[in-house]
Amino acid sequence: MNANLPGQPVSAGFTYLSNHAHILVCLAGDPELRLRDLADRVGITERAVQRIISDLEAAGVLSHDREGRRNRYRITKSASLRHPLEAHCTVGGLLDWVHGGKTKE
User: Long-range contacts: 5-10, Cβ < 8 Å, 24+?
Assistant: First the structure.
């Protein structure tokens, strides 16, 4: 079994979660991650991370505060998942499931 660890390239094929979800999972574990670190962990470009962050902020799922030269991200855990099949679930529920209830948020 090829388990991908943070910072390792993603295996060929597909993943069960979207890159948007991967960004949220990473930020739930460390809300001060830099775009570069997010890009490395998810396996996408920094520009793609910027677009995803913008998408999540526009949807009201993510916000940030500027602390010096860094951003600290806040996740709206009460936000519903966006697809009709999962709309009864929350972002917080997804993150609790992935992190086993242990997030820094």
Answer: 6/41, 7/40, 7/41, 9/43, 10/43
